[in-house]
Prior knowledge:
Mean pLDDT is about 85; it is low at about 230-250. This protein is mainly alpha-helical. The longest helix is centred in the first third of the chain and has 28 residues, at about 50-75. The chain has one domain (about 60-250): Isoleucyl-tRNA Synthetase, Domain 1 (Orthogonal Bundle). It is about 55% helix and about 0% strand. The chain has nine helices and no strands.
Amino acid sequence: MQWDKMSKSKLNGVDPSGVVERHGIEVVRLTMLANVGPHRARKWEENDGIMRGIIAWQFKLIRLGENLIEWSRDQASNNGWQLMIGPDQDPLWYAKNGKGRSQFCITHENTLNLVNSYYNDTFVLSAAISRLQETTELLRRSSISSGGPGPRSFVYLRVLADLIVMLTPLAPILSCELWSQLQHACQLQSPSAHLHDQLNALRTSSSHWSTQWPYDLTKPVLDQQFPVFSDIVADAEVRNASLEPAAQQSSQ
């Protein structure tokens, strides 16, 4: 990689190839895009809080995939991996008090709309990264180790798959690794397992996203359709929510 700086700032630069060699291209890219809007210059500080946060987030994502594989392996040696689907079964569908949708679902629906808007309209990629980090924490708080249903819940599995696909434009190498973990976890179940029958049935479903599986696990993540949510009832709330982060970015 050949590069040079203007004479007045020759002593203020860093060799980008050295940074990439130390941290990897995906960490560097995400660090450059995080925390600031596309219209602002960002002062580069290696190993600052932003980069440490990105590295920690990357570790959390990989751990989610590893936990999924461990869960699937345990289920394969027991009764098999069977999903809880729909409001009558899935504990992540309704709020804990049984009244209305769960915060898990509402948050993810907002994220689907906002991330699509950030990618297609406002191009505020720092806000997209922030939303994907929130989704990661949402999944971690709902994992089995945290007392949640984890991958027994179809909504959990769907949100994990959505997260991986939404990450692809920002970190394609990492998302390919995570998608391979998801594929491997499902392949650990025998071809006749309930899991495959359930996912195949939900692929042809045209109902609400929380009972629909739009992905083909025989194909790589780059060939998957990008997740969307266009429920008319939720659109008004999401439209209002989408204005606030963009306004905050433009005012900085």
